[in-house]
Design brief:
Elements: H1 2-16, H2 22-33, H3 36-59, H4 61-66, H5 68-90, H6 96-102, H7 105-117, H8 122-135, H9 145-174, H10 179-202
Helix pairs in contact: 1-9, 2-3, 2-9, 2-10, 3-7, 3-8, 3-9, 5-10
C-alpha cells in the first residue's frame, strides 16, 4: 500500500503542475532568462517546500476543505500574484542583461522558498485531491503513509517543473525565439490566469 501511495502522489503532483501557473512559468522564465542550472536550483528548493506543505495539508485536508473564507482570501491573493508576476515578466527584458550577472544560486533558492510558501493553489488543490484519494482508498494515511505521500508529491512536482524548464529551452532553440518574445508570451499567460481567477471570484 505504501508503494501505491508513493506512485499516486507522484502522478497526482505531476499532473497538478501541468496547467500553466505561476510555478511552472517561473521555471520556464528562469530557464530562458538565466540558465537551466538556476532553474533546477529553484525547482529543487520549491519541491522541498511542496513536500513539506503537502504533508501538513494532507493531515488537515478535510479541515481546509471546510474553510471557505480562507480559500476565498487565498483566491484573491492568487489574483494579485498573477498580476505581479505578469508585470515583472513583461518588464524583464528591459533589465535582463544587467541582471544576468547578479542572479545567483541564492536568488534561485529565495525564489523557490517564497513561491513554496506563498502558493495559494496548494490548499484548494490538496484539500480537494487529498480528500478524494483518501476517500477512495488510493493511499494510506497510517504509519509512514503521509510521509511517503509527501515525498512522492515533491518528486512529482520536481519532475513536471524540470520538464517545463527543458521544454522552454527546447522551444527557444528550436524556433529561435527571442527572450523578449517568450517573456511577453509568459506575461500574457499570467494576465489571462489573473482574469480567469477574477471572473471566478466575481461570478
Amino acid at each position: 500500500m505504501l508503494l501505491l501511495t508513493f506512485v499516486v502522489a507522484i502522478v497526482v503532483s505531476f499532473l497538478g503542475y501541468i496547467p500553466p501557473g505561476n510555478i511552472n512559468l517561473t521555471a520556464m522564465q528562469l530557464s530562458i532568462n538565466k540558465n537551466i542550472k538556476q532553474a533546477v536550483i529553484f525547482i529543487t528548493t520549491f519541491s522541498i517546500f511542496e513536500a513539506f506543505f503537502t504533508y501538513i495539508l494532507m493531515r488537515f485536508a478535510a479541515w481546509f476543505a471546510e474553510k471557505e473564507s480562507v480559500l476565498h482570501l487565498l483566491n484573491w491573493a492568487l489574483i494579485g500574484v498573477f498580476i505581479l508576476l505578469g508585470l515583472l515578466t513583461w518588464n524583464k527584458t528591459k533589465h535582463n542583461a544587467p541582471l544576468q550577472k547578479e542572479y545567483t544560486k541564492g536568488a534561485s533558492i529565495r525564489t523557490g522558498i517564497l513561491l513554496g510558501i506563498f502558493n495559494p493553489i496548494q490548499i484548494p488543490f490538496w484539500a480537494i485531491v487529498g480528500t478524494y484519494v483518501i476517500g477512495h482508498g488510493w493511499i494510506t494515511t497510517e504509519g509512514l503513509g503521509l510521509h511517503i505521500f509527501a515525498l512522492g508529491s515533491g518528486i512529482g512536482a520536481f519532475s513536471c517543473l524540470y520538464v517545463y524548464a527543458h521544454f522552454a529551452k527546447f522551444i527557444q532553440k528550436k524556433f529561435s525565439l527571442s527572450s523578449k518574445l517568450i517573456n511577453h508570451a509568459i506575461a500574457l499567460v499570467f494576465f489571462t490566469l489573473a482574469a480567469i481567477s477574477l471572473l471566478r471570484q466575481l461570478f
